[in-house]
Design brief:
The chain is an all-alpha fold. It has 16 helices and no strands. Helix 1 (3-33) crosses helix 4 (97-121) and helix 6 (156-174) runs antiparallel to helix 15 (339-354).
Length: 391
């Protein structure tokens, strides 16, 4: 690669990370404001268009369109779309929304791919990291102070929580920030997720430091954190029982009043209905078949939802790619060079397996990260490049 092409690549890596931040942080911000009657700016659509435009420009400039492995991945991707279409037209709930889903999947893959390139190119992203962290802290304080108007939220709280979760884990994972700032950011986002009432992201966020310390092999800190968490849980449990109506809080009901938790019970019911749907349509799946149960949102909330919605082959393609590239980066031990991003991807996979569905495209962030780690050379300290805005 000549110097001119290398400079284009470096600038493109930085551009993609800026689009990633805009996509997830500002999308969450405007999803929050819309609940107060403020018109939402379509940040997601704007970044989607820019990501595709710049990606094709970049691929063309670097002759990546001729890469065999990229061809293979794109072949699987478009084959999945074709198979999904064949399966979908057999359903009485046929529509073309799956094309939109696949477009978002590919965008997330592109983001994930360039997160690794960004991490391996820029070593000292100090100012950018602190700016993003400051935005997250201020946004969390806004949620804590003003609250979250659940009566107007519909499904907005899910999207807001997803965006806030992804951008915060990314910020805490990739940027080298002061430990006090990281802890402050973590605690404020934890409270904000509780107020937003998102259970899956709150639970994952609670487990994030445990997973991080485990992968870092800091077992003494892990034990200390576990003891602190137990003490805090006991204190908060007694405090919360006196201050809150459990029946009005989705998070508390999950742990204290499970039998009367309609959301949890409905998810369990949808899981069994989804299994029955898969048994009846093991090859083709049942595209939008969940609509016959309770309408929108009545799908399985785990990785099997891909099988139920798209059919067996697209589901196997997804599982195969995750296993293949995860196995490669572990076998070659490249994950150690990008451990923070690997932990980030690990959380996204856990989220998909147990709590998300085919509507959540963040799993393709993880796939993009795995593929990029596999393709990247091991980081060399001498080749790290600092941005003009860093120390």
């Amino acid at each position: 690669m000549d110097i001119k092409t290398k400079n284009i690549s470096i600038k493109f890596d930085f551009l993609m990370i800026i689009l990633f931040i805009i996509k997830y942080f500002f999308d969450a911000f405007f999803f929050y404001l819309v609940n107060f009657g403020i018109i939402k700016i379509p940040v997601g659509i704007l970044t989607l268009v820019l990501v595709y435009f710049f990606s094709f420009y970049y691929l063309n400039k670097n002759n990546y369109l001729l890469k065999k492995e990229l061809y293979n991945l794109l072949l699987i991707f478009f084959l999945s779309i074709f198979i999904t279409f064949i399966n979908a037209i057999q359903s009485e709930y046929f529509d073309l929304m799956f094309i939109s889903n696949y477009i978002w999947y590919l965008e997330s893959f592109i983001f994930g791919y360039f997160l690794v390139k960004f991490d391996s190119t820029y070593k000292k992203n100090i100012i950018l990291g602190y700016i993003l962290c400051a935005f997250i802290i201020l946004f969390s304080l806004l949620i804590i102070i003003l609250g979250f108007p659940k009566e107007n939220s519909e499904f907005n709280y899910l999207r807001l929580a997803l965006d806030l979760f992804v951008i915060t884990i990314f910020c805490l994972s990739i940027f080298k920030l002061d430990i006090f700032i990281k802890i402050l950011c973590y605690l404020l986002v934890l409270i904000a997720l509780f107020i937003v009432n998102s259970r899956q992201y709150l639970i994952l966020f609670v487990f994030y430091p445990f997973i991080y310390l485990f992968f870092k092999k800091k077992y003494n800190y892990l034990l200390l954190l576990f003891i602190i968490m137990i003490i805090l849980t006991i204190i908060c449990y007694k405090f919360i029982l006196e201050k809150y109506e459990i029946t009005n809080n989705r998070v508390l009901r999950l742990f204290i009043d499970t039998k009367n938790d309609t959301s949890l019970n409905s998810r369990i019911s949808l899981f069994y209905l989804g299994l029955q749907s898969i048994k009846e349509n093991p090859i083709t799946g049942y595209y939008n078949g969940f609509m016959k149960y309770s309408g929108k949102g009545s799908y399985m909330h785990n990785i099997l939802s891909y099988w139920q919605q798209y059919g067996l082959l697209p589901f196997l393609f997804l599982i195969g790619i995750i296993i293949k590239y995860n196995y490669i980066v572990i076998k070659t031990q490249k994950y150690k060079q990008y451990l923070n991003l690997y932990i980030f991807s690990f959380l996204l996979i856990i989220k998909l397996i147990f709590a998300s569905s085919f509507t959540d495209n963040s799993i393709f962030l993880a796939i993009g990260i795995f593929v990029s780690i596999h393709k990247n050379e091991v980081k060399n300290e001498k080749n790290d490049i600092s941005l003009p805005i860093t120390y």
